């Protein structure tokens, strides 16, 4: 079943000169997760942060650290991010040779395992790993930069994955979250939720206006379901 909506502000859009304060501010404003985009300048055309930054931010919030690894090869860094304080570690199938093994590695470290699907990645990549994922992330933009517009074709993908999650978890206590990342704002959030998303990543839409605006921004993203 679709779970209550959770908002995961992406610190990619935060003030990098004051990251600790920004994390505390969105935590206090009602964020459910702290979404941390890790980019290597190789798998995606941007370079962001590493495990040391995650470790430095960990004392600033007790909220779930939702770490999205856009790096390749990814297996070499999983343990470092787990040790740094990640709670959920999400990887791309294209970022390593053996996705199943990578998911097993994440879970062996006591973390929740997520798999991310780029806009052109078919949902068939989920065929033999549904038992090993705690979260599926649909990228509704091509990864690498914030501030992009939602790709409309991803609505059908979200719906299809929602159906697959519901079929796999029916009659069990299992929970698989369906997260959407890219172009999420007050207008697109209800579209993603209606399609089946229950975790929304929002960078620009959360951090615009400065700390005094964060609580209102998050409330607008939750929409009328709250």
From TrEMBL:
Pfam families: Ribul_P_3_epim (PF00834). Binds 1 divalent metal cation per subunit. This is Ribulose-phosphate 3-epimerase. It catalyses: D-ribulose 5-phosphate = D-xylulose 5-phosphate. One of its GO terms (biological process) is pentose-phosphate shunt. Substrate binds at residues 10, 68, 144-147, 181-183, 203-204. The active site is at 37 (proton acceptor), 181 (proton donor). It comes from the Bacteria. Its EC number is 5.1.3.1. Keywords: Carbohydrate metabolism, Cobalt, Isomerase, Manganese, Metal-binding, Zinc. The lineage of its organism: Bacteria, Pseudomonadati, Pseudomonadota, Alphaproteobacteria, Rhodospirillales. Its cofactor is Co(2+); Mn(2+); Zn(2+); Fe(2+). One of its GO terms (molecular function) is metal ion binding. It is an enzyme of class 5 (isomerase). A divalent metal cation binds at residues 35, 37, 68, 181. GO terms for cellular component: cytoplasm. Belongs to the ribulose-phosphate 3-epimerase family. Pathway: Carbohydrate degradation. Transmembrane segments: none annotated. The keyword Manganese applies. The keyword Cell inner membrane does not apply. Catalyzes the reversible epimerization of D-ribulose 5-phosphate to D-xylulose 5-phosphate.
